[in-house]
């Protein structure tokens, strides 16, 4: 399992993320997203979330994506792996 490309794509356009509570999702979103474990916990989030919180989460997702998920950064990481 790895980072879901669709998760990174939505983060790159600064949209709020509500994702399954999986270690890889938590790592990718730096524990700053909203997480659900089952349909009941997802329903609870959807019923209680407000626009202010959605904007905050979206802004955080954009910051993380711009810091961690850019091609120039990723290519440098791969390049250093190949050189070692």
The share of residues in helices is 55-70%
Rg calc: 15 Å
Oligomer: single chain
Q: How would a textbook summarize the main sheet?
A: 2 strands, parallel
Sheet-strand content, in percent, reads: 5-15%
Query: Which structural class best describes the helix and strand composition?
Result: mainly alpha
Distance between the termini: 25 Å
Net shape: elongated
Tally of individual helices: 5
Please tell me the overall pLDDT.
91
Structure description:
It is built from 5 helices and 2 strands. The protein is mainly alpha-helical and 84 residues long. Strands 1-2 form a two-stranded parallel sheet. α1 (5-12) crosses α4. The chain is elongated, with a radius of gyration of 15 Å. The chain starts with a helix and ends with a helix.
Would you summarize the structure shown here?
With 84 residues, the protein is mostly helical. Helix content is 65%, strand content 7%.
Structural key phrases:
65% helix, mainly alpha, elongated, 84 residues, two-stranded parallel ribbon, single chain
Task: Detail the topology: elements first, then pairings.
Layout: H1 5-12, E1 18-20, H2 23-28, E2 34-36, H3 39-48, H4 51-68, H5 71-83
Parallel strand pairs: 1-2
Helix pairs in contact: 1-4
